[in-house]
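question for whoever is on the cluster today: can someone run the full assembly for these? two chains, 515 residues total. i dont have access anymore since they changed the login thing
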Amino acid sequence: MHDTKHAVPLISLRGVSLIYPVLSVAEASLRRDVVRKLVGGKVGRDRSGGVAVQALDNINIKIEEGERVALYGHNGSGKTTLLRVAAGVYHPTRGDVSISGRVSAMLDISMGMSAEATGRQNIRLLGLHRGIPRKDVEAIIPDIEEFSELGHFFDLPIKTYSAGMTTRLAFAFATAIEPDVLILDEWITPGDASFIARATQRMAEHAARARILLLASHAIPIIKQVCTRVIVLEKGRIVDDGDPESVFARLEAA
Amino acid sequence: MNVAQAFSDILTTFKRFPIFGALAWLDLQERYHRSVLGPLWMAMSLAIISGSFGFLYARILNIDHSTFIPFITCALFGWLYFQNTMTESTNTFIASAGMIKNAPQPLFGYVARVILRNLLVAAHTLPVALLVLLFYGRILDINPISLVLGTLLLIANLVWMATLMGLLGARYRDVPYIVSYILQFLMFVSPIFWMPDMLRGREWYAEINPLYHWLSLVRDPLLGISIPISSWVFSIASLVVGGVFTFFMFAKYRRRIAFWV
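^ ran it for u. tokens below:
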């Protein structure tokens, strides 16, 4: 399913649906579950929760080398879920996913970093977790240090950072590892104008190397600047798919 | 349920073992980072409990301390390892939630992380047991082969239990409390502060306790006693039954872990 060799990058989702359980506090008690089963379902009639969310509904997408794709849609439309499926972190309840190429994903601001560790230590941790050899990680640290513009904060625990600083660090790492497939979720939200400009520039540089870029964003100007294709999601379904100018024109007309 | 994927998950964990070993090591570094005693804490804990309980209960039970203290120290060494692993196991996946949701790695790797981390901690406490044995002149009684085999068998049992507890703990949020309650109770009904041969004859209610057997695997070789056949049999049986059951649970619920944590 996930091919980490440098094969021709490709993301393919066929018939992908995803329903995920939302566990309320009442649901998440073993005691309650055991009691309910022992008394044949009579206790716990007031079961609040038991909610399942259909986050994705029959998604069919093929993204090929060179494409720079934006997912556009309201909050809750399924963008983040789709990105997580593409990154291999969520498994669909139905359908097939196939991805080839080295994937780098920035799916949430934490990236799986550790609050007590410093920026530098966290870069090493992120590299370790993604299976990147130690010396390759050391080699990219200077670039990350420079791009993130954290100054001496680079060697302070990330719990002292602002959201913008954490975003800069995470983004710098995600782009520094030369991925074949770069997946970004709303990466510019906590960023200031200067960061957005530099990040967009860095992304354009990366995207220019004919790999795959998949991102979720609300920022139409940046999508128009960076992306070759926009997929619009609504309630977990694809409602439009095409080049940015046409898609946004249709959205505006609607 | 996808058995092939679960199998592949476990195999990939072995292939990528260094990653999870490094994470276990970093976990400990972070844990001890701002602490005063650091890794000495566990060792001191073992020394203090076995010292204080040891002398007191030796008097109460009217047993010579040269018999009782080595016994209690070795039993407690095994027990603390078991207790720490079980306590942490409920958080196996929850504690790694950030990593699970950001980059794909085999989920069994996070079980490996917990097991290895606790093995490292146990290694810190072993010197205390060895020093006690040395002091009482019993260090040469240690049976190294049984010790290695017995320890491996205990670890193997802990692997499936940690996986199962991790799944339960990720799904049900009261599991850590349940486990902690059970552990407290087990500490008293298991042969840690009392010796098995103090029971008149074979008592089924003592031997029905898995820890009666699992503790033997580590305690007895250290004391130079041979591990009872019944304990070997029980421990291998528990490994097979527990291991198979947990494997199927893992196969069934593996894909949901990312949503539960």
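summary bc i know u wont read the tokens: The mean pLDDT of chain A is 84. The two ends of chain A are 38 Å apart (CA to CA).
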